[in-house]
């Protein structure tokens, strides 16, 4: 992961926690049978997790904050745990 190279070790749990939170949000969003509800939940949960972890990055990562937020955006738009579990 690129976060290991750029950020110190105290910041690593933020990015690892973000990946687990995204996986949990996607899992919860896939539970209802309605596809419209799935899309709505996936959108709301993913971006809620993004906002929470962005605030954490801004608070705890004082150096390279912009890079940390860009990394969160990248992970949010590309992470799909179905590819890992399938």
- The overall pLDDT average reads 81
Order of helices and strands: HHHHH
Bulk shape = elongated
Total number of helices = 5
Please state the CA-atom Rg, rounded to the nearest Å. Answer: 14 Å
**Main beta sheet:** none
Q: Which class do the helix and strand fractions yield?
A: mainly alpha
Number of strands: 0
Distance between the termini: 21 Å
**Beta fraction:** under 5%
As a percent range, the share of helical residues equals over 70%
**Uncertain residue segments:** none
Describe the structure.
The chain is mainly α and 86 residues long. It has five helices and no strands. α2 runs antiparallel to α3.
List the helices and strands and how they pair.
Elements: H1 2-6, H2 12-29, H3 35-60, H4 65-78, H5 81-85
Can you give keywords for this protein?
0% strand; 5 helices; elongated; mainly alpha; 86 residues
Please sum up the structure shown.
This protein has 86 residues and is mainly alpha-helical. The chain has five helices and no strands.
């Amino acid at each position: 992961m690129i976060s290991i190279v750029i950020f110190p070790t105290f910041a690593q749990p933020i990015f690892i926690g973000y990946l687990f939170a995204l996986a949990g949000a996607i899992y919860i969003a896939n539970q209802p049978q309605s596809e419209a509800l799935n899309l709505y939940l996936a959108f709301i949960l993913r971006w809620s997790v993004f906002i929470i972890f962005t605030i954490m990055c801004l608070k705890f990562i004082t150096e390279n904050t912009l890079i940390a937020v860009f990394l969160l955006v990248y992970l949010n738009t590309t992470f799909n745990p179905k590819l890992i579990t399938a």
